[in-house]
Amino acid sequence: MKDKIKNILKNENFRCVLVLIVIALIMCAPMLKNNLDVYADDGIQHIARAYGTYEAIKEGVFLGNIIPNFSNNFGYSWNLFYGAFTTFSIILFKLISGSYIVAYKLFAFICMFLSGLFMYKLVSDISDNKNVGVLAGALYMMAPYHLTDLYVRNAIAEFASFMFIPLVFLGLYNIIRKEGKTWYLSIGAIGLIFTHNISTLYTAIFAIIYLLVNFKALKDKEVWKYILINALFIVTITACFTIPMLETRVIRNYRVYEPDAMVTEESLLKEQLPIRRIFVTANGDGGFVFELGPYMIIMLAFSIMTVRIMKPEFRKDYLFFLITGLLALLMATKLFPWKIMPKFLYIIQFPWRCMEYASFFLCVVAAINMGAVIKKYRFKDALIIITIATVYVMALHGFVKYQVDELTTIEDYNLGQVSGMNNECIAGMGKAEYLPSKAYENRFYIATREDRIYVTKGNAIISKEEKNGLNMTAKVETDEEETELELPYIYYPGYEIYADGIELRAFETENGFLGCNIPEKESLTLEVSYKGTDNMKTSMIISIIGFIMLVVYIWKMERER
Prior knowledge:
The chain has 561 residues and is an alpha+beta fold. It has 2 domains: 2-36 and 99-399, no CATH class; 450-530, Immunoglobulin-like. Helices cover 53% and strands 10% of the residues.
């Protein structure tokens, strides 16, 4: 038995993964406290979204696209605009644990560990040294901005994106080198698309730069074959999100798509960091920690030495990670010329978000530096450096946000209530950016409107109204040629309206609500329900087919290996 234990402990992968688990547990230790403020900043939005989506699914709402009781019971959608991976993950852990707060914490721990594990895999393959890989994985988990996302911003979607970025570059690396599992690219990209739109865009930009740096490899047809195969999987599997999102964008105007909705040039420039912020944490700035940490700066200082002594075949990839990491760092600061950048890049909203990429690229570089400059770099060397870094990061514990008392359950919150005030932040709805533009401009109308059918043109008598979530029936009597009704639902594509079994055309009213014209008839029964559009249903079938294709492809490739 002792011999078996010794053999297990001697196994490099086991030792490294065990270290990563321990570091993940240490980094997530504050979650053990019941009064950790997981609702702070973005936290309330993510947990409320999971709660609302689950309640919608229980009511039979297609994919939980619309949350019926948000927006004053007129319905509100997150999932048509924002990937739902974090939402459904929290729901899954809630079903296991019975609590949304516990589910949030469990999901965060899984994301923390997997981010380190995937970084470990990436750097182990690049450096051909598992001890270098474990250092990179640990550094990545304890990157100050990574922890800021978790404990200060509670930006669980951006936090989750940390675990997919290493997979994207591992897939690209394997494609360029013609070795290993090229389908990592699909897993990473699909995960990003379903998780965080901004991280998806910027990861794609850096990935394209990586391919351009390796332009000679692009002359090889086999490289293009694997790129196109992965592109096919990415496009098909994410169709259930991208097609409804594009359809929603084309059909009507929504606040989120307006030029000044998420960011302006003025607000973007205001969020650039002073250069000192990447070296020192400033007090009284919302608890945000952007610094690299002195241990990282010391390790990065060995980059010049590393470039000189490393093998030429590894130099190109190393320089890409080093230069791109420094570029991302620069992009976070006031030194970067954001004013002259293309406007589509402004989607990042806050330049300091580039610290996610600075953390990723520079953790790779720092770990490789240690493996290069320390003679006979061993597992114990990695442990010493990891220990030093852990002690430093634990000193940042004071930035973690706690409530005085134990947190209220999300079920007891008053969610999705629009007051009509300007620039209000609504629990469960954010800044209401996913409302139709007309509804957003008439938020006071939402706040004061009664939860019933309005006759907006002509004359009609409405009786026997019964509304149950996104299903509604009513008796309508009219003798007018043109009678227009405004139904008590915010307009999103996918509603079906029937009058005595005959389908009516749904449209958006001037207030951003669901409207219809009813035929001249003395009496009819009106039925309203949300079923999703044909494109939404078709896109779901495409995604299922794409997923099956990917599973078969992975099975086939692994069998051949």
